[in-house]
């Protein structure tokens, strides 16, 4: 593993703002995620997490500021930036009539993977996401946990070095959440990850660092212990203190 001094920023939010008329979904959000970090992205519903993630991935354009993935401006150089990026949106779209095998084959070809390289990458993501038992079942018939794994496998298919994952454990049961956490820890050995979550236990279980926003603004960027200190060593209390401006 490289030292902090040697690691370069792989995800950069540089003054990101998004306005819808007079409403600011995000306002002057600044943070970066270094190579090899797994950063938890926190905030209450409506705080601007998904909007910020969509700007970082180039899915929507910022009103102000710049988003960069592996140094590439995601408005001016989105194609090259996307080669480094795997994105799993909240409730990511799936082709329900397809099987995981068919969908992975489709996305592999769409990404230009052919022959042995395509076969090797499909086999790799099936193993990482533990999909072998459902590869030939219609996605519509799979549990929510397996659907999440299928979505994750698609995001990993081109072997990106950056992952942006929006609520990957939303709606899963405890056993399914345990499986996703295991996958995240494995992926964090080789990739840079920004992970949006509402589950504070996930922060302690997986994250190197926490970035928190509220009402579209950055309110915390630091380690888990520093976050605890905002709530007298209680993460729930710290979350409340930082996201309730009238408290």
Automatic annotation (TrEMBL):
Belongs to the ABC transporter superfamily. Keywords: ATP-binding, Hydrolase, Nucleotide-binding, Transport. One of its GO terms (molecular function) is ATP hydrolysis activity. It holds the Pfam family ABC_tran. Residues 11-240 form the ABC transporter domain. Its EC number is 3.6.3.-. It comes from Stieleria neptunia. This is Putative ABC transporter ATP-binding protein YxlF. The gene is yxlF_8.
């Amino acid at each position: 593993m490289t030292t902090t001094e040697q690691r370069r920023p792989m995800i950069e939010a540089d003054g990101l703002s998004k306005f819808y008329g007079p409403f600011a979904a995000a306002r002057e959000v600044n943070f970066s995620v270094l190579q090899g970090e797994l950063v938890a992205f926190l905030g209450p519903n409506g705080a601007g997490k998904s909007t910020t993630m969509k700007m970082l991935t180039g899915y929507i354009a910022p009103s102000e500021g710049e988003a960069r993935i592996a140094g590439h401006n995601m408005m001016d150089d989105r194609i090259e930036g996307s080669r480094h990026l795997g994105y799993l949106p909240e409730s990511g779209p799936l082709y329900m009539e397809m099987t995981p095998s068919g969908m992975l084959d489709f996305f592999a070809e769409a990404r230009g993977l052919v022959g042995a390289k395509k076969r090797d990458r499909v086999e790799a993501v099936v193993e990482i996401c533990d999909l072998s038992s459902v590869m030939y079942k219609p996605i519509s018939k799979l549990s929510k946990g397996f659907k999440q794994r299928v979505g994750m496998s698609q995001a990993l298919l081109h072997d990106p070095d950056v992952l942006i994952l929006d609520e990957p454990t939303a709606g899963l049961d405890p056993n399914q959440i345990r499986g996703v956490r295991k996958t995240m820890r494995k992926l964090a050995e080789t990739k840079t990850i920004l992970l949006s979550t509402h589950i504070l236990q996930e922060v302690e279980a997986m994250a190197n660092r926490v970035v928190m926003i509220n009402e579209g603004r950055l309110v915390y960027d630091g380690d888990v212990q520093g976050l605890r200190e905002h709530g007298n060593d209680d993460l729930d209390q710290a979350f409340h203190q930082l996201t309730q401006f009238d408290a």
